[in-house]
Amino acid sequence: MSNSAIRADFETLRDYQEMLEECDVPVRNRQGLIRKCRDSIKKHLAERIDPLEKPMTEEWRHLYCGELGEDGVDFAILPIENDKETAEDIIEYLEETVAYPPINSPYDCTGRRFTRNLTAKKTPAGWAVTHHWALDI
């Protein structure tokens, strides 16, 4: 299952939570709808993707942790453009393109992803980069 399908499920779950909080739906009914979304996410996470289908230099790999995939690691190998690049340059590039924005919300448990950590290490194959993220739940 693609990462976009899982991301869509997480966004749907967040939208349901926000919508149900705005209207006066009884708590017992909210839990049923939210449980359906969580079950859909679990189903997607249970499906295995062949990690050798494409090389790491062409596509990001994703590792989901936790029961509901509430945190995870995305990793890839980026090509070395020139020898003057530093790890700080790569991390700055990742912050602009890959990283999730910080959460500044007065509400608890927004259901949105945020970036925990970005790392970059130079290897003979290219820049080995990791993006550690988590859900605010």
Structure description:
This protein has 137 residues and is α+β, with helices and mostly antiparallel strands. The chain contains three helices and four strands, in the order ααββαββ. It has a four-stranded antiparallel sheet with strand order 1-2-4-3, with helices on one face. Helix 1 packs antiparallel against helix 2. The longest helix has 20 residues, at 3-22. The chain is elongated. The two termini are 23 Å apart.
SSE layout and pairings?
Blueprint: H1 3-22, H2 27-46, E1 61-65, E2 71-78, H3 87-97, E3 113-123, E4 126-135
Antiparallel strand pairs: 1-2, 2-4, 3-4
Helix pairs in contact: 1-2
Q: How many β-strand stretches?
A: 4
Termini Cα gap:
23 Å
Number of continuous helical runs = 3
Helix percentage range = 25-40%
Shape: elongated
Structural class by sheet pairing and helices: alpha+beta
Cα-atom Rg, whole angstroms? Answer: 18 Å
**Percentage of residues in DSSP E strands:** 15-25%
Mean pLDDT: 77
Order of helices and strands: HHEEHEE
Largest sheet: 4 strands, antiparallel
Unreliable stretches covering 5 or more consecutive residues: none
Query: Order of strands in the sheet with the most strands?
Result: 1-2-4-3
How many domains is the backbone divided into? 2
